[in-house]
Amino acid sequence: MAVALAARRARSLTTSGAFAAALVGSLAVAAGWRWGALLIVYFLTSTGLSRLGADRKARRTASVVEKGGARDATQVLVNGGMFAVAAAGYLLTGNHVWRAVGAGALAAAAADTWATEVGTWLGGTPRSAWNWRRVPAGTSGGMTTAGTIAMCAGAAAIALLVFLLQWGHGPSWGAAAGGIAGAVADTVLGATLQERRRCMGCGDYTERIVHSCGSRTRRARGIPALNNDMVNLVASLIGSGIAYKVAELIGT
Ligand SMILES: [Zn+2]
After folding, report:
1. pLDDT of res. 85
2. Scanning 31, 39, 107, 221, which has the fewest C-beta atoms within 10 Å of its C-beta?
3. Residue 231 CA to chain centroid, in angstroms?
4. How close is the Cα of 127 to the center of ligand 1, in Å?
5. What is the largest distance, in Å, between two alpha-carbon atoms of the chain?
6. 47 alpha carbon – ligand 1 mean position (Å)
7. What is the pLDDT of residue 66?
8. Which strand (E) or helix (H) includes residue 20?
């Protein structure tokens, strides 16, 4: 709760986002200090990366992204909800498979967040993961070299931490594989099925309902309501599922 309050004050979370973060954090700490440590490391590194070059990122992505800056409850829950479910599962059953599930979900969130924050900061003009055409910075499914390196680093960082916390080889490799699989799924879905909108005023492609120029937008392609939050949720489920399977194959 103290971390959520501090993040609210620093405008990293909205009020609803702070409530959601306090819920996820409480479940994590209840499951054990290792769960809490994992969540805090994810949160601090992601918040820190989002601060780096914040002005440049806001300038580059403002006309494209639906939500910028402070994370709301939906964003917190699609990224951290599966980790909280795993923490609750571990708390209730004591079964170690939940460690792999939680680690995979968090690694997918870290990989995606690090990729986005570093890619929009240091990356050049991204290319679409689908057709390799250049797309504006901040576009879902866009890839840069810097972002891709950060994606792997995010998954590896959580995997390394899981190993250092002595959760075993299975959950560690599970986190690495699940983190990368989740972030790749996020990118591919973002480039293909995710709803993309077009401004009725200036014609720019965007994810916003009302474009930064003030005109309304309409759906240009993709599945209606499959927005960035929904894609993140799917990526989190894939990350935790892959981590579970890999941990099962490797064992402890
Ligand atoms: Zn416009």
Report:
1. 98
2. 221
3. 10
4. 21
5. 57
6. 29
7. 87
8. helix 15-31
Interatomic CA distance for residues 193 and 1, integer angstroms: 36
Q: Which two tokens stand for residue 94?
A: 């004591």
Q: Using one digit for the tens of pLDDT, what is the confidence trace for 161-217?
A: 999 999 999 999 999 999 999 999 999 999 999 999 999 999 998 999 999 899 999
Query: In angstroms, what is the span from residue 122 Cα to ligand 1's centroid?
Result: 26
C-alpha to C-alpha distances, 237 to 80, 83, 248, nearest whole angstrom: 11, 10, 16
233 Rama class: left (phi>0) / alpha (psi -120 to 50) / beta: alpha
What φ, ψ does residue 198 adopt, rounded to 5°?
A: -130, 135
Distance 217 CA to ligand 1 centre (A): 8
pTM above 0.70, yes or no: yes
CB atoms near residue 148 (< 10 Å): 18
Task: Report the separation in Å between the CA atom of 216 and the middle of ligand 1, taken as the mean of its atom positions.
Answer: 8
Regions in the chain scoring below 70 on pLDDT: 252
Q: What is the pLDDT of residue 177?
A: 98
Which DSSP letter does residue 137 get? Answer: T
Around Cβ 62, how many Cβ atoms within 10 Å? 13
DSSP-derived secondary structure for 170-231 = HHHHHHHHHHHHHHHHHHHHHHTTS-EEEETTT--EES-SB-TTS-BEEEEES-TT--HHHH
